[in-house]
Amino acid sequence: MNTLQEIEQCPAEILTLNDVYPYLKTDPNTLREQAVYDPSKLGFPIMVMKSRIKISKYAFVHAMKYGWVPNSLELERYRQVGTLEDFIAYRKTGLTPEEVQYLRNLYGQYNRLGKFPSSIK
């Protein structure tokens, strides 16, 4: 996978170093060594199981796009919201996923009608 978009569209939620090294333009063995000796310098969270290195797709994509890594609670919320844009809206505003979706739908209706629906007061 050579682009971040290809990684995002990958159906797997857990990636391997072989999935991400083309995007990072580095050798997979270099990544593997860094993951074993000092994983904090990679810039994204990993799981090390003996000689296997696993990477959360959501955390990796987020770290590459925004330069910070969501914590486990944020990752769970991200899975609930479904899209990165909605997750960012949730993180910035503190709204629930349902509230973000409601506002997104309301905005879509406004764009179609040129005004807010009459049910909104």
Tell me what you see in this structure.
The chain has seven helices and three strands. The chain is mainly alpha-helical and 121 residues long. A three-stranded antiparallel sheet has the order 1-3-2. 59% of the residues lie in helices and 10% in strands. The chain starts with a helix and ends in an 8-residue tail after the last helix.
Sequence-ordered SSE layout with sheet pairings:
Elements: H1 4-9, E1 14-16, H2 17-24, H3 28-37, E2 46-49, E3 52-56, H4 57-66, H5 72-81, H6 84-93, H7 97-113
Antiparallel strand pairs: 1-3, 2-3
What proportion strand? 5-15%
Major sheet strand order? 1-3-2
Give the oligomeric state: single chain
Largest sheet: 3 strands, antiparallel
Can you give keywords for this protein?
single chain; 121 residues; mainly alpha; 3-stranded antiparallel β-sheet
What is this structure, in a nutshell?
The protein is mainly α. Helices cover 59% and strands 10% of the residues. It has helices at residues 4-9, 17-24, 28-37, 57-66, 72-81, 84-93, 97-113; strands at residues 14-16, 46-49, 52-56.
